[in-house]
Amino acid sequence: MKPVLIVVSAFALVSAMAGEPAQAQTSGPEAAARLDDVVVLARRSGAPMWTVARGDSTLILVGAITGIPRDLSWRPHDLEAAAARADQILFPQEGRASFADLFRVIWRARTIGLLPAGQTSADYLSPEWQGRLETVMVGERNQDWRRKSLLFLGFDLMRDKAGYTGQRGGDDASDVIRRAARRARIEARPVGTVRGDEIVESLIQAPQAAHLPCVEAAIAAAEVGVDAARERAEDWRALRVPEVVASPIDRALAQCWPWGDPEIAPQLRQQWAAAIETAMISPGVTMGVAPLRLLADEGGVLDALKARGFDVVGPQWRAGAPETDEAGVDAADSEQGS
Q1: Cβ atoms of 292 and 241 closer than 8 Å
Q2: For residue 21, is the peptide bond before it cis, meaning its omega torsion is within 30 degrees of 0?
Q3: Distance between CA atoms of 190 and 134, rounded to whole angstroms?
Q4: Strand pairing class (49-54; 88-91)
Q5: What confidence tens digit (pLDDT) does each residue in 180-223 have?
Q6: What are phi and psi of 179, to 5 degrees?
Q7: Which candidate, 245, 251, 249, 214, places its Cα nearest to that of 230?
Q8: Given 86, 192, 241, 325, which is the most exposed site by the fewest CB atoms within 10 A?
């Protein structure tokens, strides 16, 4: 990967549109009717979403995934219409890089993108995992993959062998809501920022062994084949949230940078927790679009809200847990309309 593309890919994983916090909201019957419109439209879109209310504050959490195939049919226009009726919108973190950060990445491109001189993946992977990797890569004429850093090898496996398109896929929920915020001039903000020097430092300083869980999970996804990403996206559209979280692609993304980074990942989660806490005391309707796994994984945002006694309305997010009748009906309608 070219040096400039390395940093572009890095910051794209935590990038978002900045804005100012919302100020005034409507109240009374008008606000209640608008809330109903937002919820109905958002559910009809087919994107997994949950609502949590406390007093005159309502939080709508939309679970997003990247890598949606361009030909996958869902109802983004309904989600865009719902977002346009919100009082404020929360986006994922924004990565902020300086020219110094960019130059540092270019200067250290070899460190980030390649294994140390004279080493290959076999020097890090166990014989079992190296054998599985060899099987996945059989027939490859170019053997450069043996020398790639384990992080970039993991992403290459997901893209080339498991069909994951990442940011190059079709519109996902984040894209749609961001577009709606611009058009409707909705006040929007990222839940936090990640400094460019922190991102670059994590990419440069992390030992190759730290990326072993990433590349092993990527090998497992690659073994499923190029349909792995589509199956995950179809589960997302059908509101089969536990299946999305358990998918090999999602498991790999959870192990890879930045969510697998021991320094950056806790920071990302803490920023989301603080933003949600603020939203729950802010009058009006707040829509937040977050990575689905962050919301639905064990011990994630939805589990935390439930543990605090909030009534979380939406599709089942954990295997074996009940879902509301209302969400179930909307899920069925979504599948019929897709």
Answers
A1: yes
A2: no
A3: 41
A4: unpaired
A5: 888 888 888 899 888 878 888 888 888 999 999 999 999 999 99
A6: -65, -40
A7: 249
A8: 325
